[in-house]
């Protein structure tokens, strides 16, 4: 795969990663959120006493665990935004270098492929036979579109007078 087409594929992979990170951040049943919640409830004592300003504050572990979970969600959202920014930059480079049709087709095929892998591994989603048939057709279409060679039309302003 040439460097020209590599950027379009990388943008698709970044797009799928950004959407998976977003789902991890916002879905309370996501593996990261449920693991963080389980670890926090397991290792944080029931009540934490924090000495402050010559008084003792009692912080229930439930509030602390929710604050930790909210912090993880915030970090995931920031990571999603950064990944989307990187995806847009590589997508524009990929379209400029390989053409809009091939760049878009390759980015979408890569995005679709990695989204399926994320769905199976991270979110325990199932794949049907009909889905697999559609997936193979998308990959075949992306291959056909990416194998087309662009011709340089040259200067389109030939024959026009300078003004």
From TrEMBL:
Q: So where does this one cross the membrane? A: 70-92, 129-150
InterPro entries per record: EmrE-like (IPR037185), TMEM42 (IPR039632)
Q: Does the keyword Endoplasmic reticulum apply?
A: no
Q: Which UniProt keywords apply?
A: Membrane, Transmembrane, Transmembrane helix
Establish whether keyword Membrane is in the entry: yes
Tell me the protein's name. EamA domain-containing protein
């Amino acid at each position: 795969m040439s460097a020209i087409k590599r950027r379009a594929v990388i943008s698709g992979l970044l797009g799928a990663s950004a959407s998976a990170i977003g789902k991890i951040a916002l879905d309370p049943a996501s593996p990261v959120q449920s693991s963080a919640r389980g670890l926090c409830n397991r290792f944080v004592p029931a009540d934490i006493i924090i000495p402050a300003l010559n008084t003792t504050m009692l912080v229930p572990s439930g509030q602390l665990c929710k604050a930790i979970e909210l912090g993880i969600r915030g970090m995931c959202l920031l990571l999603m935004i950064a990944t989307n920014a990187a995806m847009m930059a590589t997508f524009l480079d990929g379209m400029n270098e390989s053409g809009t049709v091939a760049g878009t087709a390759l980015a979408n095929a890569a995005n679709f492929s990695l989204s399926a892998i994320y769905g199976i591994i991270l979110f325990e989603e199932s794949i049907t036979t009909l889905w697999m048939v559609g997936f193979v057709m998308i990959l075949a279409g992306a291959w056909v579109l990416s194998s087309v060679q662009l011709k340089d039309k040259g200067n389109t302003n030939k024959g026009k007078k300078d003004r």
